[in-house]
Write a sequence for this structure.
């Protein structure tokens, strides 16, 4: 969907959709996970994967969470541990190894992996030798397929050119730079000061080392941001010309995330200003040759993400948009989320609980969810909206043996209202998101979210604009 053809968003729409809602990196969303889903349930899901001949031929995706950071970014809602003591990584890597051993006890050694992502926290909090230790551990237990996507999140303040050499040596081919905003005053307001010159130098060094892809993370809606100040950041990002850009909306939830209480609410931009930033970002990036992938991602037209978008092969998972099929995901480390078959799981959120479970020889799973048939149908619809911007009735009906209009009779009534407001178009074949509707795609997806029928649930989420 071309962002450049969207009409200006009216004040009425802004007021109407100034509501909280999920980002839909999964459905059901992680807040629906229950503690009744145990480590035993997770082990059973692994057994089922191994016993299914077809499942064993499907590649895996791995996510490894490194929770440590040297300094606190006020906007951050990630699971992190702020510390200057780098020796805390020593036991953490030892326990990661135990968690990997538990998985290979069920799946066997050598499962093929086509996607690996190191997130955090700050993965580059690990020293070069510790990164070698971690990657050696993973390669001994899994088979990292040639041509796979192997990415790592980078805090530019922790990097130099020699460390980029280490990452290339270890097989990482995709780098994600956390920038958020280049404006010095915004950086001060969120306690993440980093010189633009440092980022530009690192990106140039990465280009010289032939990494396949560079991603830049940005956030709009931060304190002291204005559409005009953000325009300057956009221009700098275009000059960097990364293959991918992730542009996230800041989720201000100080009641849930203590660091955000240091952000002055009065300094946050209005909903109208946030939509203006998103609209101008989309226009700027599209004009610079980027394809608008979906809610928060852009990619150059030649990037595999843009190719997957054109070919209808786009997927969305816990890390955002992806070119890889909706494959099983093993989450390693504290708080990591995984998916095996029709089951979601999440590890313990504290080091103490994580270590304790592994000391007992158990998976450190603290909660999860076994998806129902209704969950699977609704997930397919929501992901089609989030990824392709459309739902073809026939594909859902054939895939899940339902009559779409009957199964979703109540939702169809709501969709007609959204059509009148210009967010979607409806015809006999399906639903399409309009250019204006992409601003509110989360609101369209929410129509199909059975759990959001309980109004009190919505308070758990950030505003959709």
């Amino acid at each position: 969907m071309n962002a450049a053809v969207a009409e200006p968003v009216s004040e009425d729409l802004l007021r109407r959709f100034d509501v909280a809602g999920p980002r839909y990196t999964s459905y059901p969303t992680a807040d629906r996970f229950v503690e009744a889903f145990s480590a035993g349930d997770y082990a059973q899901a692994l057994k089922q994967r191994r016993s299914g001949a077809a499942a064993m031929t499907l590649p895996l995706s791995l996510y490894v969470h490194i929770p440590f950071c040297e300094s606190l970014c006020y906007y951050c809602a990630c699971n992190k541990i702020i510390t200057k003591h780098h020796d805390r990584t020593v036991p953490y890597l030892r326990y990661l190894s135990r968690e990997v051993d538990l998985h290979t006890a069920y799946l066997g050694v050598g499962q093929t992996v086509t996607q690996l992502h190191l997130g955090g926290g700050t993965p580059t909090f690990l020293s070069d030798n510790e990164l070698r230790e971690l990657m050696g551990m993973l390669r001994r237990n899994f088979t990292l397929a040639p041509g796979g996507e192997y990415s790592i999140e980078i805090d530019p303040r922790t990097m130099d050119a020699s460390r980029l050499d280490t990452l290339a040596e270890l097989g990482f081919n995709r780098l994600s730079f956390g920038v958020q905003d280049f404006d010095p005053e915004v950086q001060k307001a969120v306690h993440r000061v980093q010189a633009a010159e440092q980022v530009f130098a690192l990106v140039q060094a990465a280009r010289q080392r032939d990494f396949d892809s560079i991603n830049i993370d940005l956030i709009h809606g931060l304190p002291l941001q204005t559409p005009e100040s953000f325009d300057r950041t956009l221009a700098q990002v275009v000059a960097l010309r990364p293959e991918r850009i992730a542009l996230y909306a800041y989720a201000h939830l100080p009641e849930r995330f203590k660091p955000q209480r240091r952000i002055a609410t009065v300094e946050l931009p209005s909903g109208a200003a946030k939509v203006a930033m998103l609209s101008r970002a989309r226009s700027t990036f599209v004009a610079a040759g980027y394809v608008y992938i979906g809610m928060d991602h852009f990619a150059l037209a030649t990037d595999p993400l843009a190719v997957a978008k054109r070919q209808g092969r786009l997927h969305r998972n816990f890390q955002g948009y992806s070119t890889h099929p909706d494959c099983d995901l093993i989450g390693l480390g504290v708080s990591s989320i995984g998916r095996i078959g029709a089951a979601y799981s999440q590890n313990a959120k504290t080091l103490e609980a994580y270590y304790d479970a592994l000391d007992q020889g158990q998976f450190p799973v603290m909660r999860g969810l076994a998806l129902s048939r209704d969950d699977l149908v609704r997930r397919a619809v929501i992901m089609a909206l989030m990824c392709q911007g459309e739902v073809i009735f026939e594909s859902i009906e054939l895939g899940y043996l339902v009559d779409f209009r009957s199964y979703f009779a109540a939702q169809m009534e709501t969709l007609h209202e959204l059509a009148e407001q210009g967010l979607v178009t409806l015809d006999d074949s399906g639903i399409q998101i309009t250019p204006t509707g992409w601003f509110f795609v989360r609101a369209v997806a929410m129509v199909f979210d059975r759990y959001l029928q309980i109004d009190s649930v919505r308070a758990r989420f950030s505003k959709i604009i």
Summary: The longest helix spans residues 89-107. Residues 79 and 327 are 24 Å apart (CA to CA).
